Task: inverse folding
């Protein structure tokens, strides 16, 4: 068993190395999102040879051995001739494994590869999580916790001391006083609360490619933040000229058209925070994705005011990702950088294509906030 465990650990390390080597490809191509389960992700790992039988050299005859040249028919005799089938290839095939890794493992690999610092929680209040550990044996407890071995040992000890134990007819019958039960204690461990609030522009200038970039990036943001917090929630807001809260599936599948008023999303975000997430108790992470095309300069100034007065004071950090679109002006990120120059509570990132997702993740998560 020790040898098996050692081989398994070694295999996991090999797989881990291959995943890390190909991580940027996985991120940019979005290969892992469709393979996600509740706690596991199937990762395609190329270039690992599968174990296979290999025939050795022998001289005692048999099919494929002895005299002859490659291409000669096997067992050729009267009335037989060469076959007419396609010629067999002589090159090995490519092998690809799909290996399941936990989301925690994937987050750890992401953190190592992008050199992400662990997050320092901002929320002052912590909620209590209970972990039960079995620590000993006691003479009382429910039947579900009865320890058969210790109960048997106690009954055997009692019969030996009483002189009623017969080794030739070893019948051990426990009585109530012999019963032994596992005991446990509950460790109370503090856990920080956190909420991720995703906002996305779904106006006519945001196409399917832009939404796919948002979908991929949010998967990795989720993966990292969930490794940092044990109690975490996600909320989703879509907006064009108005904003509304939706579920996750609707968030990534909605196709809208029309204009864009970014301030509507920021107001909806503030409503959610005020109603459900007091800043003294929660670590708050708003992420907004847009192509940077806003309805007017007046609405942009409304956004600046909402960010400065309402959202940034309560958030750990506010992240704005601008996805390049052939139809968007891209002006919004320029305005934010002018108004919040030097303020590290607001992080902006330009995402030109899928290859830029890796840098954007590092922009958002690399400050450890």
Result:
């Amino acid at each position: 068993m020790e040898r098996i465990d050692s081989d398994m650990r070694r295999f996991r390390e090999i797989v881990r190395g291959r995943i890390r080597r190909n991580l940027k490809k996985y991120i940019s191509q979005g290969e892992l999102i469709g393979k996600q389960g509740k706690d596991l992700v199937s990762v395609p790992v190329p270039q690992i040879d599968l174990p296979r039988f290999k025939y050795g050299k022998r001289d005692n005859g048999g099919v494929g051995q002895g005299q002859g040249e490659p291409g000669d028919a096997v067992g050729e005799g009267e009335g037989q001739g060469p076959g007419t089938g396609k010629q067999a290839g002589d090159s090995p095939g490519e092998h690809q494994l799909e290996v399941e890794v936990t989301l925690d493992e994937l987050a750890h690999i992401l953190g190592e590869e992008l050199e992400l610092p662990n997050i320092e929680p901002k929320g002052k209040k912590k909620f209590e999580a209970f972990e039960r550990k079995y620590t000993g044996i006691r003479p009382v407890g429910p039947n579900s916790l009865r320890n058969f071995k210790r109960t048997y040992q106690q009954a055997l000890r009692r019969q030996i001391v009483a002189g009623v134990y017969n080794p030739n007819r070893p019948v051990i019958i426990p009585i109530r006083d012999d019963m032994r039960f596992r005991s446990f204690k509950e460790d109370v461990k503090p856990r920080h609360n956190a909420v991720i609030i995703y906002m996305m522009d779904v106006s006519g200038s945001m196409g399917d490619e832009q939404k796919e970039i948002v979908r991929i990036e949010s998967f990795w943001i989720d993966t990292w933040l969930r490794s940092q917090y044990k109690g975490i929630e996600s909320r989703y807001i879509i907006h064009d000229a108005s904003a509304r809260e939706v579920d996750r599936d609707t968030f990534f599948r909605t196709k809208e058209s029309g204009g864009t008023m970014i301030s509507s999303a920021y107001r909806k975000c503030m409503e959610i925070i005020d109603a459900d997430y007091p800043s003294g108790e929660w670590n708050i992470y708003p992420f907004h994705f847009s192509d940077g095309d806003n309805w007017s300069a007046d609405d942009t100034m409304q956004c600046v005011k909402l960010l400065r007065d309402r959202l940034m004071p309560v958030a750990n950090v506010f992240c704005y990702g601008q996805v390049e679109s052939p139809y968007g002006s891209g002006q919004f990120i320029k305005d934010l950088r002018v108004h919040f120059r030097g303020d590290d509570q607001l992080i902006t990132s330009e995402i030109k294509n899928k290859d830029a997702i890796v840098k954007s993740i590092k922009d958002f998560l690399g400050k450890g906030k």
Observations:
- The longest strand covers residues 181-201.
